[in-house]
């Protein structure tokens, strides 16, 4: 019998909070159970195993990120949309480093079928870049550039990789302006 008050949603939310504290890769059933003041076995009424828990945290985190980016993009296009997307993405990663790490977990097709809101993490960047007049195959190339730039920047920032005296905020702003210029002047005729 499940302990009163413990639900799958509470367990997953607590695991997401724990991920932000100790790192996504350091979540354990034992640590989570300690946080609830229960034995490990009590959690297995709500999650199958650590892999299931990790997937659920990834889904929760992916939906949260998708909501933030969708809200940021609403009513914006071009440079304004690029900046809003970038700032929402970076803010999520900085505020929730464990949840951000969870969004990098590869989810199977069934996760997208079960949680269609996750598709916004795939469709959002494409919609943003269509505002720059890009079409396939340039569109996919540009999405890869955006994801590499945003993920690379925040991953290095979270890992303490920017120790140079240059202000990180200035570097971020410059990177976004460089992306805007690149997207506005995409090379080649293919995809425009």
Q: Percent helix among the residues?
A: 55-70%
Distance between the termini: 60 Å
**Structural class of the secondary elements?**
mainly alpha
Give the SSE string.
HHHHHHHHHH
Beta strand count? 0
Poorly predicted runs: none
What is the rounded Rg? Answer: 19 Å
| Main β sheet profile | none
Count of separate DSSP helical elements: 10
- Mean pLDDT across all amino acids: 92
Shape: globular
Strand content: under 5%
Task: Give a verbal description of the structure.
The structure is a single chain. The termini are far apart. The relative contact order is 0.11. The longest helix has 24 residues, at 50-73. It contains 10 helices and no strands. By secondary structure, the protein is an all-alpha fold. The protein has helices at residues 8-22, 29-36, 40-43, 50-73, 78-95, 97-102, 109-114, 120-130, 138-158, 168-184. The protein is globular and about 60 Å long.
Keywords:
about 190 residues, mainly alpha
Short summary of the structure?
The chain has 192 residues and is an all-alpha fold.
List the helices and strands and how they pair.
Blueprint: H1 8-22, H2 29-36, H3 40-43, H4 50-73, H5 78-95, H6 97-102, H7 109-114, H8 120-130, H9 138-158, H10 168-184
Helix pairs in contact: 1-4, 4-5, 4-8, 5-9, 8-9, 9-10
């Amino acid at each position: 019998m499940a302990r009163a008050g413990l639900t799958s949603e509470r367990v997953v939310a607590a695991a997401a909070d724990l991920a932000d504290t100790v790192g996504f890769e350091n979540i354990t059933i034992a640590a989570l159970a300690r946080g609830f003041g229960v034995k490990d076995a009590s959690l297995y009424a709500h999650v199958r195993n650590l892999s299931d828990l990790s997937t659920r945290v990834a889904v929760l985190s992916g939906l949260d990120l998708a909501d933030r980016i969708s809200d940021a993009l609403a009513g914006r296009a071009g440079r304004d949309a690029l900046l809003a997307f970038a700032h929402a993405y970076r803010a999520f990663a900085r505020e929730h480093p464990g949840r951000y790490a969870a969004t990098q977990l590869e989810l199977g097709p069934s996760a997208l079928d079960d949680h269609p809101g996750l598709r916004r993490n795939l469709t959002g960047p494409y919609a943003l870049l269509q505002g720059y007049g890009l079409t396939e195959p340039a569109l996919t190339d540009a999405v890869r550039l955006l994801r590499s730039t945003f993920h690379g920047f925040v991953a290095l920032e979270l890992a303490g990789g920017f120790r140079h005296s240059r202000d990180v905020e200035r570097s971020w702003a410059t990177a976004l302006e460089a992306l805007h210029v690149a997207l506005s002047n995409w090379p080649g005729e293919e995809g425009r």
